[in-house]
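Hi everyone,

Forwarding the result from last night's run.
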Amino acid sequence: MAGSEQSPKIMACDFEINGNLQKEAFELFALAQAKLLGLRGYIMQVTEEKFKGQLQGEGKVIEAFENLIKSAAEYVAAIKEFIIKNLKIIEEYTYEVFEIKKKA
């Protein structure tokens, strides 16, 4: 029976979070949640009220990350929207871990 089980597909997506969020605290929170879930990718603050990034992992795990971010008590009022774009299946991970990227 070995090999008959198909492993879950790896998904990748871009995400955007808009809101009035404290940069360091929010980035560290997102980093901790992503690592707990086993997601890979990055988050980066692009403007005062916007974070962007990429997630790589199983579809249900990406969904869990979105739900965790939206339901975190200290951020519920601050988050205006969480947008997932370009969701697609990928063959393999392109990120080793989930990280915080600095603006260039």
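The chain has one domain: 17-91.

Cheers,
N.
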